[in-house]
Amino acid sequence: MQEDHPITLEQQNKTGWRFILSELKPKGKLLTPFNIISVPIIILGTVLIVIRFWKGIGAITNLTQEVPWGLWIGFDVVTGVAFAGGAYVVTFLVYILHVRKYYPIMRATVLNGFLAYVFYAGALLLDLGRPWNVINPIIGNNFGVSSVLFLVAWHFLLYMIAQLIEFSPAIAEWLGAKRIHKILSGMTIAAVIFGITLSTLHQSGLGALYLMAKEKVHPLWYSEFLPIMFFVSSIFAGLSMVIFEGTISHRVFFQQISEKNHRAQNSIVMGLARICAGAMFVYFFLQILVFIHDKNWSLLDTPMGYWFLMEMIGFVLLPMMLFYISYRKGNIPLIRIASIITMVGIILNRLNVTVIGFKWDSPVHYIPSWMEIVVTLTVIFTEIWIFRWVIRRMPVLSDSPSWAKHED
Amino acid sequence: MSISRRGFFKAVFASGAVMALGRELHASPSTRKGGIEFRGMLYDSTLCKGCHGCEFDCAEAHNLPYPELGQDIPPVRSTSEHQRTVVNTYQTSKGEVYVKVQCMHCNEPACVAACLTQAMFKSKAGPVIWREDKCMGCRYCMVSCPFNIPKFEYHSPNPKIIKCDMCYDRLKIGEIPACAANCPNEALFYGTRRQLIKEARRRIVENPTKYADYLYGEDEAGGTCWLYLSPVKFEEIGMKTNLQKSSYPALTKGFLYSVPTIFVLFPALLLGIHQATKNNQQKKED
Predict the structure, then answer these.
(1) Are residues A201 and B244, on separate chains, in Cβ contact within 8 Å?
(2) The whole model's pTM is what?
(3) Range of the structural domain that residue A202 is part of
(4) pLDDT, tens digit (0-9, with 9 covering 90-100), for A121-148
């Protein structure tokens, strides 16, 4: 785990390309448990992806004519994007509300969000039957503007650009490009405002995708307020991911983090826990309102009803209380537990809408094949590899070089 | 700054396009100015003898393999990537009833609203068609269709969406759909939707004991171009009776209409908060 400070004297002397080539070499130990598990899965997943493009989607997935969207959409895209929601919440706190306290986690969160979009939205391409036509709605010869998916696809694309701009000062600091750094830093606030607006719309848009599937999504999960539910839950989904990711990053990359930021971490986690508790309260309250409004009482006493209650009580109400209690008592480990329960709850909720509760009444149920799961893991592991690669090189967790003054 | 400005214009264009479309959604088929009336089909299940001939005619018209119909065909099948239409058999309170299943060709189709590449297309004459060169295979049409009609070739590297297109190519050269042209029992009646509704009403009025007093498709999903008559209640013959009586695309209209509003309000609001809290911070520092 030999870590160099990203900006070294040696690097200043090298010319650009030689520097990048030297940076491409792996840093750190090769035989870590994560590498030993992830490398075979990535290799297997790559083989499966080749088979998928060669023989068709049906060759490796269990998708049916009844359930056309499975794990790759329900988990990779819909759940993955909810977890990436931390980026817009944290940039809102740092750049719009000027809460400087959250600055140390800003870059890691934005990087995580950006990579999540690149990989999980990228996983969408695997699920497209005719991916070569993906340019049609982008280049403008076929704008299906009445489609929620059109909106979501465009927002993914634009938001990736916005996040790249938000993160770009870190790249400039890595390369030592001072003038470019100044230009890129000046664009940050515009990208942030644009990014938050886009996030609001496509986080809710993912819920709106299912509005037309009125009779297909189980009535306990379907409501006309699905977009609002998806938006509100993306706030605490994203922040729980930030807490979880921060916990791991602070262990794995501890040498990169300055003493000051290490000490600040607890106060940051506490603040996030408080926001989570608040957002979850709003979400739970909305769920109750929608439930009463839809008068689905009789459905509660069914297997799907118990499942719904478990999700609402065990994975929304319980972690909400845990966040609240642990915030009041300053109990950091409990906050971490609450964030993990919340994340499981979000996975359950998104899968309940997209997979488990979708066509719940059909005689044949969709269960993902092992190959779909391996491909999903391949996407996640590859993302973590890139995340690690960037963290070890660019000033993400570590402090910026002294020449790069932080400015809003 | 240039990139974000370009991004901004893109967004304005996209949201403006959403607004423009909103207007289009409003135009209901009956009030279409100067347009051709929607064509459709009236299926009278009391006349159908369950010969499955239309399945073969359909296969022939679209170069699909002939359906394999042995002695023991299951009474209820669904359309598939090999079959655009099937005829199912139901045991009902009035004996055996046959029901032909295919795309309903909704007046305001969910699949068309769902399609982000305009591959699903509601033609002016009524048929909902799928255009191969535009489709990117996302299958959102399958998620959205309340009748579960679009089917996907999962086992092809170049998959297509398979569904009834009301023999769009035959209509263009002035012929009527293959199934209606060849039905030996006149169970299928092709015409303008207005004619069909009139004809269906006439049959119900003249034969109140023979028909259930309901015209399926007149209001389902906001009205469909295929209309069904049945001797028994439609629940008994496997038709979806839980569908809403208004347009499915309208379900997403509220959300899509909020998009331009949010695009205008949010950036202004966020910039306002940004400036306001910045001043606060400066005051504190002073």
Answers:
(1) no
(2) 0.88
(3) 29-361+370-391
(4) 788 889 999 998 888 888 767 788 889 9
